[in-house]
Amino acid sequence: MTELKIAIAGASGRMGRMLAETILGATDLRLTGALDVASAPAIGTDVTAFLGKSSDVAICATLPEGLADADILIDFTRPEGTLEHLAYCAQHGIKMVIGTTGFDAAGKAAITAAAERTAIVFAPNMSVGVNVTMKLLEMAAKSFSEGYDIEIIEAHHRMKVDAPSGTALQMGEVIANTLGRNLDDVGVFARHGVTGERDPSSIGFATIRGGDIVGDHTVLFAGIGERVEISHKSSSRVTYAHGSLRAARFLADKTTGLFDMQDVLGLR
Fold this sequence. Notes:
5-stranded mixed β-sheet
């Protein structure tokens, strides 16, 4: 079997390290590149030095060096960095797995355009469990379309910079689309003071930030006399790493196109 050659963006961060460790344990993947910002203290060091191992892959700051031998770049960084990587990958035919969140409409449009030149899996959460949960939410929304109030509660670590999380927003979009609504019209992202009675068509969001919470998401369908909660809780970033590698393998025979984890897992 031909090995897929993988590069990692944000290689010295928490997710980057988890990806490096997970790739080292895979028999069909080979780590060939590692990127980080020029100011990162780890620039020039071996990407798996934190494990006490040598991979012969140094963390570098330039795209030509970091992506010289890569088939696929896995990117969990920030929108501005990911979009810079995206332009380079589209130009050079390097495929991408994008787990970065917080893109605005223009950023999402850039990803869509780049997918005409290379193959991309773009999902706000790479966890297999989360993406199965998305399918459950679609099923639940069909049954709870009337008489149930819908609220989405998410919690993450204190370092997360965007809110609500990309996963929470995707959950809201799945539910809104199933109900024939537009999340931009029905999403409620803040409540304070005298808010008036709840609009029954709204989808509410609550955000918690604190400590080292990896990622918790709960969707509440609250009716009269009962409530149903569908939850997913992450205790380790390894779930995102394993999902990312499944996405990379999915791209092995793709040349162009924009896909998400529903495609990867065959949940369409």
